[in-house]
Design a protein that fits this description.
This protein has 26 helices and 2 strands. The chain is an all-alpha fold. The chain has a two-stranded antiparallel ribbon with strand order 1-2. Helix 10 runs antiparallel to helix 11 and helix 14 runs antiparallel to helix 15. The two termini are 39 Å apart.
Amino acid sequence: QAMMTFEPEDILNAGNMMKDAQAVCQKFRKKTTVADSINNLMNRQTAEYFTEEEMHAEVCYAECLLQRAALTFLQDENMISFIKGGIKVRNSYQTYKELLNIVQSSSYTKGENYSHLEGGVQLGIGAFNLTLSLLPTRILRLLEFVGFSGNKEYGLEQLQEGASTENSRALLCTMLLLCYHTFMSFVLGTGEGDVDDAQRLLLPFLKRYPKGAIFLFFAGRIEEIRGNIDAAISRFEECCEAQQHWKQFHHMCYWELMWCFTFKRQWKMAYFYADLLSKENSWSKSTYMYMKAAYLNMFGKEDYKPFGEDEIELFRKVPNMKQKIAGKSLPTEKFAIRKARRYLSQNPVKLTVPALEMMYIWNGYTVIGKHQDLTEGMLETLNDAERTLNSGPVNEYLMDDQCLVKLLKGLCLKHLDRLLEAEEYFSWIHTNHQMIKYDHYLVPNALLEHALLCMQEGRNDEAVKFLESAKQNYKNYSMESRTHFRIQAALLKLKSLTQNGSQLLPSTL
């Protein structure tokens, strides 16, 4: 509940509950003396050292540590809290590693509840390996220095095994896999998630719980990724109707419905859901306000604007609504605030296709690329925007806006298999990068998209060159971390496609 609402009272209550749970686990953990602790540091703990009950207590204790760490990051913003949270995460990770060594030991005797113990270890090891593997190389190297490591394939394998057996963590393993295939791989990657595997994992739960809100939500997300936008809308609406207790599930659906109607270029419906989010949800008020203004920006001159709201006034409200989570401003909010700054002047210069720009930040062009009609429609909107820019007055934002439109047009053209034209647009942005004044994120992202196009054509050496340039030569730009996540995903994909990856990518992998 605390993770869903972000309400201080819920976070405090959750923290107290987790402390109680951890205290229960502590009662059943192995009791150690100082001499035992020193011996354990010098020699790896063995299977004989634990009873089965103590092993289960260790798994539950590791889970409590992770959840308490997450709550610590949410609740406090000072450095001491971050250090405490980090220590909890590391202790949890080390516990899972020790448990894995024990259950894989030939001397370990399986008890009657072994499947539940194994499922708990697979959940922890799989989650850590999968999550860490997605991190940019520079962050991963720092974490490896303090004892962490991540292997995506091994993480997925552990979670698959945990999801495929009857154990108390099977559902959690399934949920994490669904999150990876339908969200993490798209938002933090290049869309390489296995949607068919997600569908296979989801179907048994949909049959068992046909009105289960969380399962209907994932069903909608799978349809959305496949480009079946109308089917996705139906699933998300069904999810909202399935229950009324957890409004946050509705808000998750509103967010996806907003994007579904964006893909269809139905700006009024997209605005409607952005407006609902801004009124009902507290996860990211600045982002919701920005999206409301962005959709009003996309309206035609003759279109009626709901509630008489003015996009300029809405954009001006964006900076005052920012919030911090774990002491950090949300990257999407920082992006929205930077873009909205041009409306703070007395005579603001209108943003160019802001809704379609944010759609790129959330990797939406990978979705519409599945359907030619959606992609062609988006390209038509971008062509109109380009004509407006070319016929309008020269201003300080003109080059930035032209580069933005060319990046988005390049994406549409790539998905329409007009690869040469797409490549020309990506190259044009890099050639003119010194003329960009504000939106410096466009250059590394153009290099990233150029690299993905090269990979599509089998030009892997060129792809590596563009990816290395994007990673090494540009810093301190908007959404930098997300771009680095995508670069890392592309490099991992290249490595899997190349037999001798260590020679091809010496400085990266």
